[in-house]
Specification:
Helices cover 22% and strands 20% of the residues. By secondary structure, the protein is α+β, with helices and mostly antiparallel strands. The protein folds into 4 domains: 33 residues, no CATH class; 345 residues, TIM Barrel (Alpha-Beta Barrel); 37 residues, no CATH class; 179 residues, no CATH class.
C-alpha cells in the first residue's frame, strides 16, 4: 500500500502544474490579478460559497403524516368574488398558500402565519370567468348590455367603500339578466362557454404550475352551486384526483339543479378514467335539505341511491367561514358545546334555515335510521374543514380575521364588529333602515350576516407523503379531520387488541394500525369482545393549549335518535366526573382587556385508551372525536379591542376552537354469533 501511495504521488508531481507551488494558495487568492474576488469569503476560500439549498423529497412515512390544507377557495374567476373587488388569480391564491403576502381588495396585505400543505382553487362553475370578462371593456362579452354596469368595476379609482352600493346593484342585476339572455338567445351561449373553458383551463394550469410533489400539493377543482327552490343550499366542491385528463367544461347548475345529476356526470367521467369526489358544504344553510331521508324526487332512498352517493361523496365540510355544521343547540340539547359559530340563515339570505337535516351529527344519526330500516347508509362520510374564502386567501386566525367577501366585509365596521360611523349609521338609517342594528345603544351595520361568520376552517389528512396520490387516497379512505382554524392534530383508532401499554409504546402508531381501524372506517363487532378506542390530540404549537378530548357517540334506540358525550382525556391532571362523564373546568380564562389567556393551564398533548361504559354489542353506533382548546377571544372581540370599543354583547366574546375526527362506525356481529361480554378489560377506563 505504501509503495502504491508513493507511486501515486510521483505521478502527480510529474504532471504539469503539480509541482510544489512557489506561492501559497492564500497569496494567489489575495492577488486581484489572479481572477479571484473574495469579499466576505473565508481567508482560505478558493471559490465563492453558494447559499443554495437542495430541497430533496422526503420519503413516504408508512405511519402517515398530518397535512393541512384548504379545498374551498375562490378567486376573481368567481362571479361573486370579482364584483366585490377580488382580482386575485388562481396563481395568486397558490402563492398565498405557500406563504407569500397577498393584497386584499380593501387595500391591506394579508399573509398566513405559516404555509399550508395543500390547496385547491374551486371557483364557481356557474358563470366561471364571466363577470371578470364583463368588466374588461376590450372583450366581446363586455359589449352586452348586462355587462355595462360592470365595466372597469375594479379600476383603481373605484376600489373604495363608496362603490359598494353600485357593486351590489350590479351583482343583483347580472345573474337574472344573464340567465334571461342565455335563454332567449340575446347572449351567445357559445361565447359564454368559451369564456368558461378558458378560465377553467387557466385554473388547471395554475394548479399544475404550483404543484411540487413532496412539498406542496394542489388539486384541480370547482364549485357546483345549486340550491332548492326555497334557497336551501346544496353546494358541493368537486376535487379531481389528478390533471392528466379532465373535462373541458366543469359541471354547473346550468346542467342540473339536482345533485344526482352531478353524480351521474362524475360516474360518467369515472368510466372514462377520470376520478373525482364531491364535498357538500354549508349544510347548515340548506334548510334541512342537504341530508334528507328521501331523494331529489321525494321518493324513498334505496341501496342504489346510497351506493352512488357514497361513491361520489365520501367527505363533508363540517366547518367554514359561514358557520359550523357539526350540530345545533336545538338538535343536541344536552351538548354544552353545541352552540358554536352557528350561522342561522340560508346561504345568501336572511331566511331562517331549518336545523334538522342540515347538520352533520344529525345526518350521521339519519344514516343509522336508514340502516335500521334495511337501506344502505348513505351518510357514512368523513369530515374536513375549509374556508370558502372569496379573496383567494383564507382567513383562519381570530386575531387577524379579514372575513371572506372582498370589499363587502373587509373592515370591522362593514362586518359589524365595531359601531358604524356617525355618518354611515345615520345615512343607512335613512336609506335602508333594515340594514342597521342597534346593540347596547350603538348602531352597527347589518347588511348581511357577517357578524355570525367564523375564522374557519382547515382540512386535515393523514397521508404517507404530500402528493396528490397520497392525499387523495386519504380523502377516499376518510382518514381526515377538521379544525376551526388552529393546526391541531387528531388521531382516532378502534380495535380489540389495544391494552394500556399502547399509550407508552414508542411505536404506538404502528401498533394502532396493526391492532385496529383508523377514523373513517367500519369496526365489525366480534363475539365476546369489547372494542377499545385509542384517542390522541396534539395542540397547535402557536395556539392555545388543549382543554379536553371528547368522544361523541350516536345511536338509535326504540326508533329515536340518541347521542352521548364522554370526556375521555382532561388537561391538567383532571379526571372526568363519574356522574356526568365530563372534565371539571380547568380554570382557563381570557382577559377581555387585551385577549391574553391563562398561562400554565391546559395541555400540549392528550391521549387515552377508552372503552364505552354503555357499550351494547347489538347496537349499531358511530363514534367521533371533538377536541376543545382553552377559551380564546373571538375575532369580533379582537376587532373591538383594536378599535377601543366594548365588544358587542349579543356576540360571544370568547370561543373554544376545536377539531373533529372522522367517525368510526361500529357494526354488530352477524346474527347467530355468541354475544360478547360488555365488561371492559381490567384497569381500562
Amino acid at each position: 500500500m505504501k509503495a502504491q501511495l508513493a507511486l501515486g504521488c510521483s505521478i502527480l508531481l510529474a504532471l504539469p502544474g503539480c509541482s510544489e507551488p512557489k506561492t501559497s494558495l492564500d497569496a494567489i487568492q489575495s492577488d486581484p490579478e489572479a481572477g479571484f474576488t473574495r469579499p466576505a469569503q473565508p481567508a482560505n476560500a478558493m471559490l465563492p460559497h453558494s447559499d443554495d439549498i437542495l430541497e430533496l423529497r422526503v420519503p413516504p412515512n408508512p405511519g402517515r403524516n398530518a397535512y393541512f390544507g384548504d379545498l374551498h377557495v375562490h378567486t376573481g374567476y368567481s362571479f361573486d368574488a370579482y364584483v366585490f373587488g377580488t382580482t386575485s388569480t388562481p396563481r395568486d391564491a397558490y402563492r398565498y398558500a405557500r406563504g407569500e403576502a397577498l393584497e386584499h381588495p380593501s387595500g391591506y396585505r394579508v399573509q398566513l402565519r405559516q404555509p399550508l400543505d395543500f390547496y385547491a382553487v374551486t371557483d364557481h362553475a356557474m358563470f366561471l370567468g364571466l363577470v371578470k370578462e364583463a368588466a374588461d371593456t376590450r372583450s366581446a362579452f363586455s359589449r352586452y348590455e348586462v355587462a355595462q354596469p360592470l365595466h372597469d368595476i375594479n379600476a383603481p379609482d373605484n376600489m373604495n367603500e363608496w362603490s359598494l352600493a353600485d357593486r351590489g346593484r350590479a351583482f343583483a342585476a347580472f345573474l337574472p339578466a344573464t340567465l334571461a339572455g342565455l335563454r332567449d338567445g340575446s347572449i351567445d351561449p357559445r361565447l359564454a362557454e368559451a369564456i368558461t373553458r378558458s378560465a377553467w383551463l387557466d385554473t388547471i394550469e395554475a394548479a399544475d404550475e404550483a404543484y411540487v410533489p413532496g412539498r406542496f400539493t394542489t388539486f384541480a377543482g370547482f364549485e357546483y352551486t345549486s340550491s332548492t327552490d326555497d334557497m336551501g343550499n346544496l353546494h358541493r366542491n368537486v376535487i379531481f384526483h389528478d390533471t392528466r385528463r379532465l373535462p373541458a367544461v366543469p359541471f354547473s347548475r346550468f346542467h342540473s339543479q339536482n345533485p344526482e345529476g352531478l353524480w351521474d356526470w362524475m360516474d360518467g367521467l369515472r368510466a372514462r378514467g377520470i376520478e373525482s369526489l364531491a364535498i357538500p358544504h354549508n349544510s347548515n344553510g340548506s334548510n334541512g335539505q342537504m341530508f334528507k331521508l328521501v331523494d331529489w324526487a321525494g321518493d324513498p332512498m334505496d341501496d342504489d341511491y346510497s351506493i352512488q352517493r357514497l361513491r361520489n361523496e365520501p367527505l363533508v365540510e363540517i366547518t367554514q367561514v359561514k358557520g359550523t355544521s357539526d350540530t345545533h343547540p336545538l338538535l343536541s340539547k344536552n351538548d354544552e358545546w353545541a352552540n358554536f359559530e352557528i350561522a342561522p340563515y340560508r346561504v345568501a339570505t336572511k331566511l331562517y334555515s331549518e336545523p334538522a337535516g342540515g347538520y352533520v351529527r344529525d345526518a350521521l344519526l339519519r344514516g343509522l335510521d336508514l340502516s335500521a330500516g334495511g337501506v344502505l347508509n348513505p351518510y357514512q362520510f368523513g369530515v374536513i374543514g375549509s374556508s370558502d374564502t372569496h379573496n383567494g386567501a383564507d382567513s383562519l386566525d381570530e386575531e387577524t380575521f379579514f372575513s371572506k367577501a372582498g370589499m363587502l366585509d373587509g373592515t370591522p365596521e362593514l362586518r359589524g364588529s365595531v359601531p358604524a360611523s356617525f355618518i354611515a349609521g345615520n345615512l343607512m338609517k335613512i336609506l335602508e333602515p333594515g340594514m342597521v342594528k342597534t346593540v347596547d345603544g350603538r348602531d352597527y351595520l347589518a347588511s348581511s350576516s357577517f357578524e355570525y361568520w367564523s375564522a374557519s376552517g382547515l382540512a386535515g389528512v393523514w397521508a404517507e407523503e404530500n402528493t396528490r396520490e397520497s392525499i387523495y387516497a386519504a380523502f377516499r379512505r376518510r382518514e381526515t379531520f377538521a379544525t376551526s382554524g388552529p393546526r391541531m392534530q387528531v388521531r382516532f383508532f378502534a380495535g380489540y387488541e389495544f391494552t394500556p401499554s399502547i399509550l407508552v409504546d414508542r411505536d404506538i402508531v404502528s401498533a394502532a394500525y396493526a391492532g385496529g381501524v383508523s377514523m373513517g372506517s367500519d369496526l365489525q363487532g366480534v363475539a365476546g369482545r369489547v372494542p377499545g378506542f385509542l384517542v390522541w390530540a396534539l395542540a397547535d404549537p402557536e395556539g392555545a393549549p388543549l382543554q379536553r378530548v371528547q368522544v361523541i357517540k350516536g345511536f338509535v334506540a326504540n326508533g329515536e335518535h340518541r347521542e352521548r358525550i364522554y370526556d375521555v382525556a382532561c388537561s391538567d391532571g383532571l379526571t372526568a366526573d363519574p356522574a356526568t362523564g365530563l372534565c371539571p373546568d380547568n380554570g382557563a380564562a381570557v382577559d377581555l382587556a387585551d385577549c391574553s389567556i391563562s398561562a400554565g393551564v391546559g395541555a400540549s398533548e392528550l391521549q387515552a385508551l377508552w372503552h364505552d361504559p354503555d357499550f351494547d354489542p347489538e347496537q349499531e353506533a358511530f363514534y367521533y372525536l371533538r377536541v376543545l382548546q382553552n377559551p380564546t377571544c373571538r375575532w369580533s372581540t379582537w376587532d373591538a379591542i383594536r378599535a377601543g370599543v366594548r365588544p358587542r354583547s349579543d356576540l360571544p366574546a370568547t370561543i373554544q376552537e376545536r377539531a373533529w375526527s372522522s367517525p368510526v362506525w361500529y357494526r354488530p356481529p352477524p346474527a347467530g354469533e355468541e354475544q360478547p361480554t360488555t365488561a371492559a378489560p381490567a384497569g381500562v377506563g
